[in-house]
Amino acid sequence: MSAPAAPPAALVTGGTSGIGKATAELLHSRGYRVMVTGVSSLADTGLPEDITVVKADARSLPDLDRAMEQVRSQFGSLDLLHLNAGISRPGPIESTDEAAFDALFDINVKGTFFTLQKALPLLNEGASIVFTVGAGEGVGAAMTAAKGALLPLMRSLALELAPRRIRVNAVSPGLINTPAYSKMGVSQEMIETWGRDVPLGRAGAPADVAEAVAFLASDAAGYITGDDLVISGGIGVHARA
């Protein structure tokens, strides 16, 4: 009698808070073996104890190598890579200095690119990659440029990896109530105020995005690749109509 197949394995970058944390928790509840990267230790995340937390800075290639070695030794291979690590530095072009520009591109673009490069040998045939891109428009030129670089990368990878039956997609969250806003000094009252202008009448929750990531990783999305799923509560519908 053959041994039962191991549960699917997922790596979520930037998985210690916000959207990444919600995705890790949802995948874990659905039977995935889950590893997350981030700058927090397990004691600081509130994640289940059997989710592995690897402290890693997305800008550091040695940190990425260490994370992939942990994946290799613990899981052997991956069925889902959720590329979620990123930062926000909103602001007009006049107030964007070199340090802010470099941080945006080092983490959001360089970090994503090299995480992908180093994870590719670990991805099983038929695996799924999901980018978190975000709606960059309206938050500043540098942030829009950094976010905008990811969609062409995603679509290029969707074609490049199709022979391995690896599907590559993105989620683009709109107004999602995550800890990133408090780090930028935005109050909950302000988020609720903004949420009233969303067609569905509220800000989104990290769990709303997590459900979309889980869908794109599932067999139900088996014929979807190279696409960007916008999760915005209807923002921009009038522009697209």
Structure in words:
- The chain is of the alpha/beta class.
- The chain has one domain: 3-Layer(aba) Sandwich (Rossmann fold), CATH 3.40.50.720.
- Helices cover 42% and strands 17% of the residues.
- The protein contains ten helices and seven strands.
- It has helices spanning 18-29, 42-45, 61-74, 98-119, 141-148, 150-161, 179-183, 188-195, 206-217, 237-240, and strands at 9-12, 33-38, 52-55, 78-83, 123-132, 167-173, 228-231.
- A seven-stranded parallel sheet has the order 3-2-1-4-5-6-7, with helices on both faces.
- Helix 1 (18-29) links the parallel strand 1 and strand 2 (33-38).
- Helix 1 (18-29) packs across helix 9 (206-217), helix 3 (61-74) runs parallel beside helix 4 (98-119) and helix 4 packs parallel to helix 5.
- The chain starts with 8 loop residues before the first strand and ends with a helix.
- The relative contact order is 0.14.
- The model has no long low-confidence stretch (mean pLDDT 89).
